[in-house]
Amino acid sequence: MAKEKRHMKGRVKPGDVTQRVGVEQIEARGVNVKQLREKLIDAAGAEFTTYYYYTILRMHLAGHEDYKEICEDARLEDRAHFELITPRIYELGGGLPRDIREFADRASCLDAYLPENPTATSILQILLEAERCAIRTWNEICDLTFGKDPRTYDMASRILQEETEHEAWFIELLSKERDGEIRPSGHFRRGEPGEAPYSKNRQFYNP
Ligand SMILES: [Fe+2]
Ligand SMILES: [Fe+2]
Predict the structure, then answer these.
(1) How many domains does the chain have?
(2) CATH code of the domain containing 128
(3) What is the pLDDT of residue 204?
């Protein structure tokens, strides 16, 4: 049997726990890991705060049970996005801010505040623009990692798929509610609230 194997050694010395081959390898392929880490923390902050704000927005859709349910799907899926991406921040040598205030402030999207005059139309517009911000955020992460960091790319693209569906849902609902126009999303609600068909952690970890 050969004594040497092609990948048995690398720049990181055997037993060195201060460095990560998982980081070294994606850096060698052109990822700016420090920048990526910071953007992932900002993106995780947006998911977490959106989960919080959607809780309030959903409450104020009272009387529109269909809107409430769609809002709930988007809300729970944002929590799934936070859960999915947070371990990746640590794998890359980063971490969440110690203070949740700092975390909320650095979120990559605006606070999805309950509007001054909370009507179904004004709430749906807040929801729609929050989804659009999320699409821009995750597309950027996909661009930074495509062909270089398959793990982050895979997670970001799973999240992006759900964000794209969320935008389509809120276009459909706002269009009907505000303009009386039909602009179908092309899909139906989730089987269970917040099903997260692409991003749920459980589908990754199957011990
Ligand atoms: Fe999200
Ligand atoms: Fe979303």
Answers:
(1) 1
(2) 1.20.1260.10
(3) 61
